[in-house]
Amino acid sequence: MTRHVVVTGANRGIGRAIAEAFVANGDTVSTIYRGGDLPDGVTGAVADVTDTAAVNAAFDELEAAHGRVRVLIANAGITRDGLLMRMSDEDFESVIDVNLTGTFRTVRRAVNSMMREKYGRIVLIGSVVGLMGNPGQVNYSSSKSALVGMARSITREVGSRGITANVIAPGFITTDMTAELAADVVKQYEATIPARRFGAASEVAAAAVFLASDAAGYVSGAVLPVDGGLGMGH
C-alpha cells in the first residue's frame, strides 16, 4: 500500500532532502510549506504552521488528493539567534510558535487521521542543540528540546494504536544556511565533531526513512542523533 507522507517545509534544506528520499522510496509525498519550488514528485499546500485553521485546511486539501496521512515528518523551523540578555520577547516567542507550537498543530491534525488508519509514523526534526545547548540559541534549543517530551508523551498516548513518534537530532548539516559560514568558522566547528565533517542532508533523510519504515515499528519515543558524534552523552 502506497503511503501518504507529509513533510513540512520540503522546499529547502533538510526537509527537501527528506521529501526526495520518500519519493525515491515509492511513497506519495506532499508538503505544507510557505513558498518556493518543490522537488519533483512532491505536491504542496501553502500554509503557515502558526495558523491552526490554515494547517487544518492544508491537511484537508492534501488528504483529499492523496488519502489520509500515514507518515508525518515535522521539519518546519526557524532561528532568531541572539544572546539571552539581548533577546526580545518577540524573538523568543516566534521561534517557539513555529518550532514547537507549529509542530504541535501539525501533529495534532495528523494523529486524527492516523488513529483512523490504526497506523502512523511521526518523526520530529529536533537538533543536537536541543540536547547540549548552544550560546545565542536559548529560544531555538528550548524549542527543540521540548520535542523530546512531545514525542514521548505522544508515544504513551497513542502507541497502542500502531503509531510511533520519534525525534531525529541532527548536528551540523551542510545546507544553504551553513554554506554561508566563513571557512575558518567551519574549521572551528569541524574540530569539535568526532567525525571531523559536517553531515549531509541525505544522511538525515536516511534516518527519517528508517524511522518511518516497518523495520522501526518497535522504535518509539527515541532520539536518534545524526551528528557525527557531536552530542555524545547528551
Automatic annotation (TrEMBL):
One annotated GO molecular function: quinone binding
Annotated Ketoreductase domain residues: 3-171
Q: What is its EC number?
A: 1.1.1.100
Has keyword Nucleotide-binding? no
Q: Write out the entry's keywords from A to Z.
A: Oxidoreductase
- Could you give a single Gene Ontology term from the biological process aspect? fatty acid biosynthetic process
Q: What class of enzyme is it?
A: oxidoreductase
Cited SMART domains: PKS_KR (SM00822)
One Pfam family, short name = adh_short_C2
Similarity section: Belongs to the short-chain dehydrogenases/reductases (SDR) family.
Which PANTHER family does the entry link to? Answer: 3-OXOACYL-[ACYL-CARRIER-PROTEIN] REDUCTASE (PTHR42760:SF133), SHORT-CHAIN DEHYDROGENASES/REDUCTASES FAMILY MEMBER (PTHR42760)
- Spell out the protein name for this chain: 3-oxoacyl-[acyl-carrier protein] reductase
